[in-house]
Structures are given as C-alpha cells and as structure tokens.
Amino acid sequence: HGTMIGNEVLDAMPVRLWARRPDAGGQPVWFERGVVLTPEGFAWEERLYTGPLPQALNALADLPPTQEYLTETHEA
Predict the structure, then answer these.
(1) pTM of the complete model
(2) Closest by alpha carbon to 65, among 33, 24, 32?
(3) How far apart (Å, rounded) are the C-alpha atoms in residues 61 and 40?
C-alpha cells in the first residue's frame, strides 16, 4: 500500500494563455500569449485574438472594461 503525489502533473497540461487589455477607446481586447525566440532568448508575445473566445472566458464579461486580466484555459 502506498500513496503517490504528482504535483507536477497539472503543470504539464497544455493550456492557452490569455491577456485582456483595454484598447485606445477603453474597450477590452483579448490577446493570446505565446513564447517566441528572440536574439536575447525566449520571450512572451501577445497576438491579437479575433476568433470566438473559449466559453471559460465568458465568465469574465462582468469585469470593468478597462481592467487588465491574465488567465489560462484548458479546453479539454
């Protein structure tokens, strides 16, 4: 009998990283974050996302439009 604790299992799950930022008019805009290789090494890059948002992000619709937010989703 024994117990196995795998605290690193969830860290290995594939997720999508999202950033919500206000545009020049104060309206929320979503970006999908990814990792890019630059001459200095790895860095974050945010790409404007214009497709349908994952359902999990709809729960954030009540946030004030100018509030920035960073979250992740795991659709599976």
Answers:
(1) 0.75
(2) 24
(3) 37
